[in-house]
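User: Hey, quick favor. My workstation is busy. Could you predict this chain's structure for me?
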Amino acid sequence: MGGKYKCVILYHLLIDGTLRFSELSRLMPQATAKMLTQQLRDLEHDGLILRKVYPVVPPKTEYSLTKRG
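Assistant: No problem, here it is.
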């Protein structure tokens, strides 16, 4: 599992539970939005995290660990 922030993302989701993108961004100020988005997509593709999008304005997206994660 490569990626500079993947382990950090998994750690925060394990300790803090479900988090929104903005909360993850605040927890990792050194990560750019583009990098964080790519790392989250990779983790979702690998089946380690679950992404839940709510149909509201502005968009609300939450991330949580799966059983595999």
